[in-house]
Amino acid sequence: MQAPSAGRGGISTEDARALTERIVGLSQATATRVTINARSRPFIRSADNRITTAGESSDVSVTIMSAFGQRVASVTTNLLDEPSLTEAVRRSEALARLAPENPEYLGELTPQDYPKVNGYYETTGGISAEDMASATALAIDQARGAGHVASGFIDVQNGSQSIATSEGLFAHHKSTGVASTLTVRSPDGSTSGWAGDEAADWNQIETARIATDAVRKCDAWRDKTSLDPGHYDVVLEPTAVGMLMLRMRRTFDGRAADEGRSYFSSPSGGTRVGDEIFDPRITIHSDPAAPDAETAPFDGEGARQAAETWIENGILRNLSYSRFWANKQGVAPRPAPANLLMSGGLDSIEAMIASTRRGVLITRFWYIRGLNPRTISYTGLTRDGTFLIEDGQISRPVNNFRFNQSLVELLQNVDMLGEPVRVAAGENSSVGVPIIVPPLKVRNFNLASVSDAI
Fold it and tell me: Which Pfam families does the UniProt entry name for this protein (predicted)?
């Protein structure tokens, strides 16, 4: 069998099926799972108003998991010739025989019924170096014209995921994603502005707006003034909201709630499912078929990933359950959300600012780290454009802050919501988990201390 290579769409369904069947056929374990990740990654980086790096990498990796009863181990390889695959299977089996028993391993899944998800966009899969270079040149030209220095990253990730088990399960999903981010700084480094987009469809990346917004923020944040820390009304742009909600996505864990380790734990035991815990305008759901935010319709075990509502009108509706914990609790398994979609409203950022007597406008955050899972609290820094609002207008640029904030309180203190958009919510500027969120105006946000960072 000829080893498949990763094209812009990963590998074909036929090649994936043939490869997984071949590996399962080599196995001598009592249970086997094969996962294939095939990726192509075009990219372009810029710094100091010039393109510094451009290229494309591709890879096909195979993870082979072997089980003998409750003893489980896995091996990953990107050597796909017959001898290398055979060696990987045997190594996986040898490690499994040495592994301690895993009491939470429930065996492999049989064939599943998956929702139809079309996550591959030819506009992204067919992106050219010229497309990315043109977008980068536009940003550099705008920054240079304003007397600033631009640094940017366009990251494109195309490919496929496949999974198969010795019980006959097979699933295959093709996907695309692109993130375009831009930081513009003054030559002396004293001020900066940032803008970015993320999408599955390259046509949804607003190249001109990114350049204009980053330059505008850099200009507006010049000559920052001091503002004392404290609790403020804040207007959070969508990226700032998305960076927090990216962390929120990981909190809907039924086991943590059942074991008393979560805000979603009930004081009397069990969980708070059915309780109203957030502002009634807050609804959070996930959907692998969400337009321009598609994800695979299966999780890492091959379980069906369906649309789920986690928060509905402020009420906790569901929590995620692994197969093991669901079996123990007598409930249906429910994979964790692979994307996060938050409801919004009709308020513009301009209307939020106009309604604020005294508050702070925040572009985005940085270096966010967890504090307390029981209150879903995080700390981090504001970055790339922080402004004081007085009497309904932006009055002056101000220093950055370190925040210490409970996301529970944030979602309880919402005043206004805007239109949801997909945002570049990761800190590393790469394509990440699809996050669709609105801008928010929030009361009593804890800007705990001043930060000298730019």
Answer: PmbA_TldD_2nd (PF19290), PmbA_TldD_3rd (PF19289)
**Mean pLDDT for the stretch of residues 234-263:** 98
Q: Report the distance separating Cα 73 and Cα 66, nearest Å.
A: 6
Q: Measured between alpha carbons, how far apart are the two ends of the chain, in Å?
A: 55
Residue 239 token pair: 């990226």
- In sign, the C-alpha dihedral spanning 284, 285, 291, 292 is positive
Give the distance between the most distant pair of CA atoms in the chain: 72
* Domain edges within the chain: 13-214, 224-454
Which two tokens mark 250?
Answer: 């990981």
Fold that domain 13-214 belongs to in CATH: PmbA/TldD fold (3.30.2290)
Distance from C-alpha of 130 to C-alpha of 267, rounded to nearest angstrom: 58
**Buried-state track 278-287, b at ≥16 Cβ within 10 A, e below 16:** bbebbbbbbb
Characterise 384 by phi-psi region: left (phi > 0), alpha (psi -120 to 50), beta (else).
Answer: left
User: Which amino acid is present at 270?
Assistant: G
Question: Which residue is associated with the tokens 């692994």?
Answer: 322
Predicted TM-score (pTM) of the model is 0.96
How many C-beta atoms lie closer than 10 Å to residue 2's C-beta? 9
Segment 125-182, tens digit of pLDDT: 999 999 999 999 999 999 999 999 999 999 999 999 999 999 999 999 999 999 999 9
Q: Which residue in 148, 162, 145 sits closest to 302, CA to CA?
A: 162
Cα–Cα dist 371/406, whole Å: 9
Cβ-based neighbour number of residue 231 at 10 Å: 12
The one-character DSSP state at 82 is: H
Six token digits for residue 47: 């710094």
In sequence order, the 6+-apart residues with CB closer than 8 A to the CB of 190 are 222, 224, 454
Tell me which amino acid residue 10 is. Answer: G
pLDDT digits (tens, 9 = 90+) for 100-121: 999 999 999 999 999 999 999 9
The rounded distance, in Å, linking the Cα atoms of 275 and 318 is 11
